[in-house]
Amino acid sequence: MTAARHRPGWAWQAGAWLLLALYLAPCWYMVGRSFLRIGPATGGGWALTLDHYRAVLGGAGFLGFVWNSLLVLIGVVGANVVFALLSGYAFARYRFPGRSLLFTGLLTTLMVPKQILMIPILDLMVRCGLQDTLWALILPFAVDGFNVFLLRQFIVALPPDLEEAARADGASELQVLARVVFPLCRPALVVVVVNTAVVTWNAFLFPLILTDSEAARTLPIGLALLTQGPFATDWGALMAGSTISSLPLLLAFWFFQDEIIQGLTAGAFRE
Amino acid sequence: MRIHRWAVGGLVALCAWWAWLPLAAAGAEPLELLFWNFWDPALVRPVIERFEAEHPGVRIRSEQLPWNTGLDKVVTAVAAGRAPDICELGSTWMGRFMAQGVLLDLSSATAELLAHYRLAEAVTWEGRTYGLPWMVSTRVLFFNQALFRAAGLDPSRPPATWDELLAAARAIHRPAERIYGFGMNAGEAHVLYKKFLPFVWGAGGDVLDPDGRLVFDGPATRDALAFWGRLREYSYLEKQDLLDEAFMKGSLGLEISGSWNLARFPREAPGLEFGVARLPRPAADRGASTSFTGGQVVALFKNCRHPGLGLDFIKFLTRPEHTLPITRATMVSFPAHRGAYGDPLFTEDPRMQVFVQQLETACHPPIHPQWVELEAIVNQAIERVVVAGEPAASALARAAQAWQEVLARARARRLEPASGPGPVGRPAPWSTALLLLGVTGLLLGAILLAGWRGPRGPWSVPPARLVFLLPWLTTFVLFWIYPLLFSLAVSFTDFDILHPEAIRLVGAGNFVRLWHDAEFRRAFVNTVRFVLGTVPTTTLLGLALALLVQQVRIGQRILRSAFFLPSILSMVVVATIFKSFYAPDGAVNAVLGLVGLPGRAWLVEPAWALPAIMALEVWATAGFAMILFLAALQAIPPQLYEAAEVDGASAWQRFRFVTLPMIRPMTLFVVVVTTIRTWQVFPEVFTLTRGGPLGATDTLVHRLYETAFRFHEMGYASAMAWILLLIVLGLSLLQMRLLGERSP
């Protein structure tokens, strides 16, 4: 690390913190606005308040929305880790007829706007009786093509010697995958987890279309409904809700950031 | 062994987790009706409870929809055969819904009732009735009395004519002091025409004449456009919510707005002295004071399970005693039932009286199946003249031509009301799913069979191992291949999602139209600009942040998390925050003002709207790139730097010849990820500009979404999707070559 050898000048330190303060201005605004009341009691000025948080946390069904979002998050992230590893491995290591055709198909899915698929997918979910259940928010997103692509690229670059050694020792294919490939793939899996978690946690359009009832509502839609006025959004409550909804991912990142960075570094990221 | 057990344990836990997730709700009660509406459940629930008390054994299940995406939700539900029994619909959408025969004809039961309601025209189509009006609203002129006084105007005498309005705006307008004369809507879909059309109607014009012919390009519109052109010089151009904010802060002299402000202004700005007045007429001796009116109606879809009960419910719901509490609580709109207007709420408050009087002369835009298209055309013509300064004659001629094209297409699509039982029905469960699962199995079997040429064939492993691919392959077939084939089939038809039985083959018609479609071309150019503008910037900023954070030793954890923070925020939230930053008196202009640069209306000026959204995108995604670069930087062996230093390399040379080559793979990865993301840019456009101003921020996915869900032209949208797909396919093949499709 360069930083280990060069004395970190105070200029660097100060510069970084100053830049951070400016860079995060929109976030300051979000948090600040969530604690401010602009209203009659303040004579047009402002005052600190927790009312917005009370309004959101006390909103009908709020905890249920958080719970649903968590269920979907765990389902989608878990499925993507397992399935992307399996499929990525198969694409990288097995040779079979039709492989390049399938892989081209996979690459294509990365760049097709999902909006065009909304109606057929909704139709499918209705026919399976899964519309308006959390399954409808998990199954279509259980194996994201991007994650398979990522794992495939990563595994292709790994030396196959270790796997062959394990096979020579009599390990089954699943054992090779779990004991040899899985640990080596940690960096790529970290990207899979972070990326999938952020996208799933914030998803709006598909959950809106695929669920109706409060029992299956996720956090982004719940927040939009709680803070909506027909002509003016309740800004304070919206900002409070946004602050609350960004906390879980931020805390997760804060606690696991060393693992994430180490994980990314572990295999020296190759494409 | 340890890891293996962990992996198996994890899999088992995951399966258990899934099995535990709640499946579909149990069967519906015998007399249950599903009611979709837009209101706070606390307002609707009491009425439902009273209705259920009067009708034992009946249950009304109410589900709330979001205002700005509710129409899309209703349309997709109808298309999938999942329309609710009872639905609240915006009055301007009714032309389409009624003409396409998805609503239940209630004529016989509501014929004499309708006289008691305002907005009866919104539920009437070709002499038949398809619902009951629920709430209505109108717009009046709000004026700030303190600013009137300061400008030497009489605060008790609001402008009654166009000239007086112009004079008042001119007297108040002092932009240097952040005081503006008039609040003019701009850069926002669905709102502009509501403020502008009253001037056309007041001058004796209209959009369509009684026979349905376009008269929007007539002299009244030209007068109104000329007047707005003059008024613009003393105006603050922004979106409605920001205009209301500005008025509340006391920096706006006049604006046209709705009754919700009667509750909001006293609550949030108690010191604000304001009055309301009817909209001005063209001149004291000419024209009339009129305004826009619209509202919500309740209708039954054709698949309504208990029509008699549904009808009882909508009659119950729209009664004055059940609508007045909604008005009192929200002040957003008034009861549609005329019986409510004797209430003290209306008779005792002089400001409410202004609204009630205005309601008497207010006009509803034409009820027409193609109103959604016409609305877009009208809005664009107004923006062309007022914002972009195009001559009225050419803008109106273009509008007339665009309308002719819309009509021609509609005629070709034979959009007449369907007779007989509607297209709306609930499909048989499982049939398609089983079919598709079968297809997946066949596909896999075919691959296996085709490839099975004994142990020395093209296989490197026993075919049974392909089971590893099965989860991905299943979702690939179910959620990509099937929908894509569906859309391929549809792209050769004029499939209208509200009118599926009128589907017609048009051959390559959609693709030919695409080739000539200037709006599609513009969206393509905008998207390419967006990708080219954001990808290098995000990559460079991510790298710069990573290099900076790496230098910092105290608090590096905090810095890392903090710079990453924007990446975990939802794009909708980010867009909402930036909306206020980009306001004319928002943070961006304030900072520019500090260094002496002139401010701008970032999202209203066509030249600046797209770059403004690009900046937002870069801000929101650079943190993710930073984390990836940090990982790549930490993986560089320190010996390389030491060796370079021994060789006398300068800091720049170390960066150029050690750092850059070592992070090249990660750079490529960041570029690919960012390209994929920005190519599909949508939520920020949808939240901030809806493609405006004048199409400057209309991107491919946004265009596709609008075509499919606002104009319901699924066939045309599918053709767009397939053209995109072919482009993408080319790019993917290129990418594969670039990233090296190495054989294992």
How are the SSEs placed, and which strands pair?
The complex is a heterodimer of chains A (271) and B (744).
Chain A (H helix, E strand, L loop, with lengths): L1 H4 L4 H14 L1 H11 E2 L9 E2 L2 H7 L4 H32 L5 H13 L6 H11 L6 H4 L6 H12 L4 H8 L4 H12 L1 H17 L2 H6 L8 H9 L7 H32 L5
Helix pairs in contact in A: 3-15, 4-15, 5-9, 5-12, 5-14, 6-9, 10-11, 12-15, 14-15
Chain B lengths: L1 H19 L11 E6 L3 H14 L4 E6 L5 H10 L6 E5 L3 H6 L7 H4 L13 E2 L2 E2 L2 E13 H6 L11 H11 L7 E6 L6 H11 L16 H14 L2 E4 L1 H9 L3 E7 L1 H9 L5 E4 L15 E8 L6 H11 L2 H11 L3 E2 L8 H4 L2 H12 L9 H16 L5 H21 L18 H21 L18 H21 L18 H8 L1 H34 L4 H13 L2 H11 L5 H8 L11 H29 L3 H9 L4 H12 L1 H16 L3 H6 L11 H11 L3 H26 L5
Parallel strand pairs in B: 1-2, 1-3, 7-8, 7-9
Antiparallel strand pairs in B: 3-11, 4-5, 6-9, 6-10, 6-11, 6-12
Helix pairs in contact in B: 8-9, 16-17, 18-19, 19-31, 21-25, 21-28, 22-25, 25-28, 30-31
Going by CATH, the homologous superfamily of the largest domain in chain B would be MetI-like
**Could you list the spans of chain B in which at least 5 consecutive residues all have pLDDT below 50?**
18-28, 416-429, 453-457
Number of strands of chain B: 12
CATH architecture of the largest domain in chain B: Orthogonal Bundle
How many structural domains does the protein architecture of chain A include? 1
As for the number of domains of chain B, it is: 4
Radius of gyration of chain A: 23 Å
Q: How does the major sheet of chain A shape up?
A: 2 strands, antiparallel
Q: In whole angstroms, how far apart are the ends of chain B?
A: 27 Å
The CATH H-level superfamily of chain A is MetI-like
CATH class of the largest domain in chain B: Mainly Alpha
Shape of chain A: globular
- Give the biggest beta sheet of chain B: 10 strands, mixed
Based on helices, strands and strand pairing, what is the structural class of chain A?
mainly alpha
Q: What structural class do you assign from the helix and strand content of chain B? A: alpha/beta
CATH fold node name of the largest domain in chain B: MetI-like fold
